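Progress note, sequence design subtask.
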């Protein structure tokens, strides 16, 4: 787990650029907001030591959740998780 957030009585966590929650609607809302934010801003800086925490902090004002706990990532998985999400998706027919 990297970042644990609370929105009202619901909780979710962000780990390796993926939101997880027992409430599927909240999970979808958070994941959609993350994808839009990444495409709008380019996501966390490439040299960020904790990109999940950076992303959660950036979305906090937009969505209105409280960050209750953060854990620094171990290894490169969290840092490399945002690489593929930064790619622009072009529709080829």
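Output:
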């Amino acid at each position: 787990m990297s970042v644990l957030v609370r929105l009202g009585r619901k909780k979710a966590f962000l780990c390796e650029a993926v939101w997880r929650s027992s409430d599927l609607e909240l999970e979808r809302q958070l994941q959609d907001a993350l994808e839009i934010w990444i495409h709008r801003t380019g996501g966390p800086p490439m040299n960020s030591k904790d990109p999940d925490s950076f992303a959660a902090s950036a979305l906090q004002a937009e969505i209105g959740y409280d960050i209750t706990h953060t854990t620094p990532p171990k290894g490169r998985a969290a840092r490399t998780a945002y690489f593929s999400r930064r790619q622009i998706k072009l529709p080829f027919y």
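The CA atoms of residues 29 and 63 lie 9 Å apart. Work on this subtask will continue into the next period as scheduled.
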